């Protein structure tokens, strides 16, 4: 079984963001680990809900986005970057022993 790298997870998260936010919005934006959900992507709360659902579909219950965000204070949420989410997903997958099958 191949181990998911943070680069691969970043690609997957960018793909999910395209689904959630819309390809048109992201055409002029290169999403990197440094990209901020609030300042750079202007992700709204309903889009965070959709993101959480898509992450659960992709990675299963081991990546609990709601709990991850729930442990942050408001400043941390506002300043959260794509890279921080990618690192969280990578840690969850590594701790649970690999990729979700299927």
Brief rundown of the structure:
The protein contains 6 helices and no strands. It has 102 residues and is mainly α.
Please name the defining characteristics of this protein.
mainly alpha
Polypeptide structure, described:
This protein is mainly alpha-helical. It is built from six helices and no strands. The protein has helices spanning 6-21, 23-26, 45-59, 65-70, 74-79, 82-96. Helix 1 (6-21) packs across helix 6 (82-96). The chain is globular. The two termini are 13 Å apart. The model has no long low-confidence stretch (mean pLDDT 89).
Q: Mean of the pLDDT scores?
A: 89
The number of distinct helices, counting runs of at least 4 residues, comes to 6
Give the DSSP E fraction (strand runs of 2 or more residues). Answer: under 5%
Which structural class do you get from the secondary structure elements?
mainly alpha
Topology diagram in text:
Elements (H helix, E strand, L loop, with lengths): L5 H16 L1 H4 L18 H15 L5 H6 L3 H6 L2 H15 L6
Helix pairs in contact: 1-3, 1-6
């Amino acid at each position: 079984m191949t181990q998911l790298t943070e680069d691969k997870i970043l690609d997957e998260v960018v793909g999910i963001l395209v689904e959630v936010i819309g390809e048109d919005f992201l055409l002029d934006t290169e999403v990197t680990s440094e990209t901020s959900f609030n300042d750079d992507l202007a992700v709204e709360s309903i889009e965070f809900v959709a993101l959480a659902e898509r992450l659960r579909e992709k990675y299963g219950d081991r990546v609990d986005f709601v709990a991850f965000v729930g442990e942050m204070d408001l400043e941390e949420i506002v300043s959260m970057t794509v890279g921080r989410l990618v690192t969280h997903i990578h840690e969850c997958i590594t701790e649970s022993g690999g990729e979700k099958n299927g």
